[in-house]
Amino acid sequence: MQAEALAGLGESERAQRTIAQAIDVLKETSHPRPLAKAYRVMARITGRRQYEVAAQKLLREVAL
Question: What is the pTM of this model?
Fold first, then answer.
């Protein structure tokens, strides 16, 4: 949520750092769904499709 707010304020670099830190924590401690959501936020902030692909992969694994 903080990363999205920062991105909305035009603070792209801070937003990317914030969501990257969240992803690092979620990789170690979280269920795949919150991690997938974080990857989707990263995809929106950076415009990089690789993060959306990672989110989709995680959600497919959960569905199995």
Answer: 0.88
18-22, long-range: CB < 8 A, 24+ apart: 19/45
Please give the Cα distance from 26 to 16 (Å, whole number): 15
**Per-domain residue ranges for the chain?**
2-63
Phi and psi of 22, rounded to 5°?
-60, -45
> Counting beta carbons within 10 angstroms of the beta carbon of residue 59, is it exposed (0 to 12), middle (13 to 18) or buried (19 or more)?
middle
User: Which residue shows structure tokens 């792209």?
Assistant: 12
Query: Which is nearest to 40 in space by CA: 26, 56, 29?
Result: 56
pLDDT, one tens digit per residue, over 6-55 is 999 999 999 999 999 999 999 999 889 999 999 999 999 999 999 999 99
